[in-house]
Amino acid sequence: MKLILIGFGVVGQGFAEILRDKAVELKRKHGFAAAIIGVVTASKGALYRSDGLDIPALLEAAHGGCFSHYPDQPGLRRGWSADEMIAAGEADALVEVSPTNLETAQPALDICKLALDAGMHLVLANKGPVALDHANLRAQARAKGVQMRYEATVMAGTPTMHLAEDALAGCEILSARGILNGTTNYILTQMESGMSYEGALKQAQELGYAETDPTGDVEGWDAAGKVLILANALFGASLTMADLDVSGITHISAADIAEARAAGCRYKLIASATAEGGMVKAARLPLADPLASVGGSTNAITMKTDLLGDITLIGAGAGKLETGGAILADLLAIQRAAGPS
Amino acid sequence: MKLILIGFGVVGQGFAEILRDKAVELKRKHGFAAAIIGVVTASKGALYRSDGLDIPALLEAAHGGCFSHYPDQPGLRRGWSADEMIAAGEADALVEVSPTNLETAQPALDICKLALDAGMHLVLANKGPVALDHANLRAQARAKGVQMRYEATVMAGTPTMHLAEDALAGCEILSARGILNGTTNYILTQMESGMSYEGALKQAQELGYAETDPTGDVEGWDAAGKVLILANALFGASLTMADLDVSGITHISAADIAEARAAGCRYKLIASATAEGGMVKAARLPLADPLASVGGSTNAITMKTDLLGDITLIGAGAGKLETGGAILADLLAIQRAAGPS
DSSP class of residue A72? Predict the structure, then answer.
């Protein structure tokens, strides 16, 4: 399987490391072999080679901060745009791992549409296109007979989408609600242990969970993007941010936390989606709720189904290998669906 | 898809109800249509009809306790054995939902082998054959190019096997540990609330969780059967009951529970499997362990993976529709793997 990667940050590098380290195992267990033939980045440059790039050299160049450190090779092209790589028509799948833009989904959205139009499968860790234009992308993928998968966009590699779309295929999913942002869950957990909001936020930033500008996390927007993805993917909704009721955790005080605790409850930032809509809101959960005991930066989701009752999945919501592993899982699912070769 | 059912108790009837109630939805969403062409039971008789049995009439006859209540129809055969139905060569899959025998796996095991040999896919809710002869059945299925699936055998329809085999396909699963017996978890949860072991067991029997002879549950044998299935399916082990260290909850007193509680812990009957072996043993878990907060008859499993860290799945471990839904999920997966028709 020949791949073009758009973006080569933490997630792209994690995926490349997995391909490097698991090549033999993947070939043996799944008959799966992948070559990265193109990489486009905003800051490090771009590389393309029909016969495949050398993954260790690619990772080393990325660690050096610039693809100019990548050695010359026969057939190597430097500086191509995503459009040029797609137009070359050699890739089987485009892997979108560039940073998420929840306002316009660009420039990723246009690139995704070009790739689908060229008959390439599409795998995303970038939430933007799936959150903002799911229906059009899905229709385009179906028309072209290719697959679009995006396991990494919700709970990293914890297999939320595989669960909903494959494992629960015979059920009707009635609702989904979960803890979909690790940063805010980490802050709330630390506040339970007596830390102030400011202290917990600072610690989350030091650990790399929260960004310097934490607004996207603490105001609920990151979780809201995931609500849109769930609503559109699981319920065929066509919601936009304007349809969601979104609030974060900035109004939760140490006193609120203590009061909830005294009442046998715990505050969690709950993201929920149904066929009718979605919301992100801090809520006091009774301790018997499986989501109440999910601590630290861990994520979790409960899907209510007609046949199986409540199914809860708990796992990592971020991380280099955890998210890179989601890309691999999607590519394996694409290969499975294509049938034995 | 033409099906033969071996057994028609709670699980078989639950599956038949789902086929009856979801026929239109399954056809529309998955292009899936199934006919039950044969049913063999130990106590109600047997029915076979190439063009499919009438599901409402089948359920009504079963509720009456005997298939002699099923109306005559053109082409209907009464009293055929499983061997005769398989020999007719018309079924695409055999669905084994007869009661589990963890000592010999018979008579189900011989029937499963006959069906695989005849080129039929195999779906089981019966734990016996998968727990005791997994390696041979898998080899036979592979040689015949058919699938063997058994989602229902561990945690009913909660998609444990789909998770391990499909959703986590790119990972290496290092270990699995969980609460795999609902009866004992219900008893332990009630004891936490101050009930005696005897009182909690009596209540579990009244609610239909525990059988009149509760030995299989409370001594850990039911969970041990599931450990064998996990060990053999996830790790390619060839373990037998003799390889497992198995104990139950009968030695846990109210004082033990109280002492654990005072130490911030909770007793759970933990079933675990690795490539090296498996065990069933009551253990004191710290409350931060996701398994500690799983109460009542609910089941849960944590799989430790190389790429994604710990993944925990929580859901029902028994129930008519919950287990019948697992059969449906397996049949849908078989259809998916066979590719678009």
Answer: P
Using only C-alpha atoms, chain B has a radius of gyration, in whole angstroms, of 20
Query: Which residue of chain B has the CA closest to A315?
Result: B311
Q: pTM value?
A: 0.94
Per residue, what are the HEC states of chain B?
A: CEEEEECCCHHHHHHHHHHHHHHHHHHHHHCCCCEEEEEECCCCCEEECCCCCCHHHHHHHHHCCCHHHCCCCCCCEECCCHHHHHHCCCCCEEEECCCCCCCCCCCHHHHHHHHHHCCCEEEECCHHHHHHHHHHHHHHHHHHCCCEECHHHCCCCCCHHHHHHHHCCCCCEEEEEEECCHHHHHHHHHHHCCCCHHHHHHHHHHCCCCCCCCHHHHCCHHHHHHHHHHHHHHHCCCCCHHHCEECCCCCCCHHHHHHHHHCCEEEEEEEEEECCCEEEEEEEEECCCCCCCCCCCCEEEEEEECCCEEEEEEECCCCHHHHHHHHHHHHHHHHHHHCCC
Alpha carbon of residue B40 to chain centroid:
19
Strand order across the beta sheet in which A121-124 lies: A77-78, A46-48, A35-40, A2-6, A93-96, A121-124, A148-149
Residue B169 contacts by C-beta under 8 Å, 6 or more apart in sequence? Answer: A29, A30, A329, A332, A333, A336
Beta-carbon contacts below 8 Å between A and B: 143
Q: Which two tokens stand for residue B22?
A: 């979801």
Residues contacting residue A160 through CB under 8 Å, at least 6 positions apart: A151, A154, A301, A313
Report DSSP letters for A145-210, one per residue.
T--EE-GGGTTTTS-HHHIIIIITTTSPEEEEEEE--HHHHHHHHHHHTT--HHHHHHHHHHTTSS
Q: Which among A307, A310, A339 has CB closest to B325?
A: A307
Contacts of A308 in chain B (CB under 8 A): 156-158, 315-316, 321-322, 325
Answer yes or no: are the C-beta atoms of A126 and A153 closer than 8 Å: yes
Q: Would you state the pLDDT for residue A339?
A: 65
Q: What are phi and psi of B44, to 5 degrees?
A: -105, -5
Torsion of CA B114, B115, B116, B117, to 10 degrees: 50
Tokens of B125: 């809710």
Active site residues of A: 226
pLDDT, tens digit, for every residue of B230-278? 999 999 888 999 999 999 999 999 999 999 999 999 999 999 999 989 9
d(CA B82, CA A314): 42
Beta-carbon contacts of A43 under 8 Å, excluding residues fewer than 6 positions away, are A65
Q: Are A26 and A32 in contact (CB under 8 A)?
A: yes
Does residue B97 contact residue B122 with C-beta atoms inside 8 Å? Answer: no
With an 8 Å Cβ cutoff, is B158 touching chain A?
yes
Using a 10 angstrom Cβ sphere, with 0-12 exposed, 13-18 middle and 19 or more buried, the burial of residue A156 is buried
Q: What residues pair up with A282 in beta bridges, in sequence order?
A: A269
Name which of B19, B171, B307, B332 to mutate to probe chain A: the one with the most chain A Cβ atoms within 10 A of its Cβ: B307
Q: Is A315 in a helix, a strand, or coil? A: strand
Pairing outcome for strands A299-305 and A309-315: antiparallel
Residue of B94, B307, B301 lying closest to A18 (CA atoms) = B307
Q: What is the pLDDT of residues A34-74, one digit of tens each?
A: 999 999 999 999 999 999 999 999 999 999 999 999 999 99
Chain A CB within 8 Å of residue B325 CB: yes
For A307, the 3-state DSSP assignment is coil
DSSP alpha helices (H): ranges in A31-147?
55-63, 82-87, 108-117, 127-144
ipTM of the complex: 0.93
